[in-house]
Write a structure and sequence with these properties.
The longest helix has 22 residues. The mean pLDDT is 94. The protein is α/β, with parallel strands linked by helices. The termini are far apart. The protein contains nine helices and 16 strands. Helix 1 packs across helix 6 and helix 5 crosses helix 9. A seven-stranded parallel β-sheet has the order 3-2-1-4-5-6-13, with helices on both faces.
């Protein structure tokens, strides 16, 4: 693959930084644009140019020398989006609109967008396919779906080559060739695996289990976990697969689900910590099962996850959590 130049928006965050590292390791030139509102300057991989700024101002830096944009910059907390929807419409939708305008002006005609399974809302079937109905249950999901529609219009009207990748539950950590590691360190943290690891680290007394009466094998919710390095590899393949005038949408997941109790038990085995549980009432809007069909990604991107083992995902996340504790 010949050397390319890429702009990675939100490249100081969890997924964006891992994708940026993969691009650098493939021999490409990478510029990270991030306002550091949720990302970390230390997360920008060695070898990447860094610009501290907002995507709303991308036109200041985007020029015809870039071959493509990989767009991760977004507000992503579901609960916060319910309390502050205006922030999410302004940042996620307004920012993406400004980015698309900057790309159009600069003649940059390829985009890979970080979308989400939250666009589907309550699933009508399992596993979820890209043709299933989209009915988001939060402003976060609604803004991501709005950007997907926006991208579709850009492809049809202006020939943009775009791929939207709808993530399910991203987890694990990545050790780059440079020796740097990238993992989850959201504030506040809302994802199950890092929350359970906080219990093992002694920074949280117990883990809450929200409902044990779902129609699943052990009564707890089932989710599809994908290793962040597998996710990053899908982005590189998406760059190759993007076709002018087409908006390709692909789910990214393992196609297998793990229950809340399975995750907790796996953390117990990996860490050696007992992980006390506290039962709590179901949370509104929590579907019993969220599992992806990644058949489109297999067929169109030639992508298959190679790190699907939950123990390995948790072990990588645990190594990162201990190193940062």
């Amino acid at each position: 693959m010949s050397t390319k130049k890429y702009l990675v928006t939100g490249g100081a965050g969890y997924v964006g930084s891992v994708v940026a590292a993969h691009l650098l390791e493939a021999g490409h030139a990478v510029t990270v644009l991030d306002d550091l509102s949720t990302g970390f300057r230390a997360g920008v991989p060695e070898g990447a140019e860094f610009i501290e700024g907002r995507i709303q101002d991308a036109a200041k830096w985007l020029d015809p020398s870039y071959d493509a944009v990989l767009h991760f910059a977004a507000s992503s907390q579901v609960g916060e989006s319910v309390a502050k929807p205006e922030k999410y419409w302004d940042n996620n939708v307004g920012g993406s609109m400004a980015l698309l305008a900057a790309m159009r002006s600069a003649g940059v005609r390829k985009l890979v967008f970080s979308s989400t399974a939250a666009t589907y809302g309550e699933p009508v079937s399992s596993p979820i396919t890209e043709t299933d109905p989209t009915s988001p249950t939060s402003p976060y999901g609604a803004t991501k779906l709005a950007v997907d529609h926006m991208i579709g219009g850009e492809c049809a009207a202006h020939g943009l080559a775009a791929v939207s990748l709808r993530y399910f539950n991203v987890a694990g950590a990545y050790a780059a060739r440079s020796g740097a590691t990238a993992g989850e360190r959201h504030d506040p943290e809302s994802h199950l695996i890092p929350l359970v690891l906080q219990v093992a680290l002694g920074t949280r007394p117990s883990i809450s289990v929200y409902g044990d009466d779902y129609p699943t094998p052990d009564g707890t919710c089932v989710r599809d976990y994908i290793h962040v390095a597998d996710l990053a590899e899908a982005h590189l393949r998406a760059l190759d697969a993007a076709t002018g005038g087409e908006h390709l949408i692909c789910n990214l997941g393992n196609g297998n689900g793990f229950s809340v109790r399975e995750v907790i038990e796996t953390v117990r085995k990996v860490t050696g910590h007992p992980i006390p549980e506290v039962m709590a009432a179901r949370r509104d809007g929590d579907p019993a099962v969220l599992v992806a069909s990644a058949e489109t990604a297999h067929r169109r991107l030639g992508w298959t996850p190679s790190r699907a083992d939950l123990t390995g995902i948790v072990a990588d996340a645990w190594a990162f959590a201990r190193a940062k504790h």
